[in-house]
Specification:
The chain is mainly alpha-helical and 291 residues long. The chain is 63% helix and 11% strand. The chain is built from eight helices and three strands, in the order H-H-H-H-H-H-H-E-E-H-E. Helix 2 packs parallel to helix 6. The protein is elongated and about 85 Å long. One of its GO terms (molecular function) is zinc ion transmembrane transporter activity. Its main location: membrane. InterPro entries: Cation_efflux (IPR002524), Cation_efflux_CTD (IPR027470), Cation_efflux_CTD_sf (IPR036837), Cation_efflux_TM (IPR058533), Cation_efflux_TMD_sf (IPR027469), CDF/SLC30A (IPR050681). Keywords: Ion transport, Membrane, Transmembrane, Transmembrane helix, Transport, Zinc, Zinc transport.
Length: 291
């Protein structure tokens, strides 16, 4: 296997920016956990747990980059790029676990809400918001190139909203003394996890099951093939994704008996690549049988 043969999205991922974002997120995660414990704020602890998943997602993205750079071989002919999908799926499962924990803890606090230091809660949440905004800026330009980076970006984005919620809750508690607001904010932050986690999990499952990419229809592929005058029919058409933006297409084509199959293959490969951005295309060519 050639060590120059690359698959996946790892060439476009900003490893240095991911390292900076991970360092910032992980460091402040610890600050938020300590701050939540000292102030008694469940909302702050909830936000810290969100930040923990952010840090984990960034770490998995870094690991996925390193794994994806390993050369393909005869045992792993596409290399290790799909480690990214496994990492993103694991991250989605962890997000669900965090959400359920926060909901349980909020329920437990209904009957016994502890004292909450709103001033400390406000200071820590404001600093957390600043860290989230910096991390979002670092990831923004590459969020559409990798499912793992996209997952990390979505988590930081949701955590940014969570920090805003904690800040609002701290102000309300400071002005009114309504301690129950802390648990309400924590629950709202927890519920923010579910829709984005489902989107991420759905994408991962579709890729792992070799489903058709969500942005391409098989019928569009077959229509493009059948537009060629020398093609009699196309069948056994399969389209799947190795990663979020690395697609694979195979098809069995029957061409007219007087046609040049090499020319047909070249023309179809070029047109499908340009129209659908598919790099890995394999056509099995078969001449039309005489009647």
């Amino acid at each position: 296997m050639s060590d120059k043969h690359e698959h996946g999205d790892i060439k476009s991922l900003p490893e240095s920016r991911l390292r900076i974002a991970f360092a910032l997120t992980f460091s402040f995660m610890l600050v938020e956990f300590i701050g939540g414990y000292l102030t008694g704020s469940l909302a702050l602890i909830s936000d810290a747990m969100h930040m923990m998943t952010d840090a984990f997602a960034l770490l998995l993205a870094l690991i996925a980059i390193r794994a994806g750079k390993k050369a393909a071989d005869y045992l792993k002919t596409y290399g290790y790029v799909r480690f990214e999908i496994l990492a993103a799926m694991l991250n989605a499962v962890i997000l669900l676990a965090v959400a359920f924990y926060v909901l349980y803890e909020a329920y437990r606090r209904i009957s016994a809400t502890p004292d909450i230091q709103s001033a400390g809660m406000l200071i820590v949440a404001s600093a957390g918001l600043a860290v989230n905004l910096i991390a979002m800026q670092l990831l923004k330009n590459s969020k559409d190139d990798s499912l793992n980076v996209k997952g990390a970006y979505l988590e930081v984005w949701a955590d940014m909203l969570g920090s805003v919620g904690v800040i609002i809750g701290a102000v309300i508690i400071w002005l009114t003394g309504w301690l129950i607001v802390d648990s309400v904010i924590a629950v709202l932050i927890g519920f923010m996890v579910f829709p984005r986690t489902w989107i991420l999990l759905k994408s991962c499952i579709n890729i792992l099951l070799q489903g058709t990419p969500e942005n391409i229809r098989i019928s569009d592929i077959t229509d493009e093939i059948n537009k060629h005058d020398e093609i009699v029919s196309a069948h056994n058409v399969h389209l799947w994704a190795l990663t979020q933006s690395n697609y694979v297409l195979t098809a069995h084509l029957i061409y007219k008996k007087d046609a040049d199959h090499n020319t047909i293959r070249r023309l179809l490969t070029d047109s499908i690549h340009k129209k659908f951005n598919i790099d890995n295309i394999t056509f099995q060519m078969e001449q039309e049988k005489p009647e």
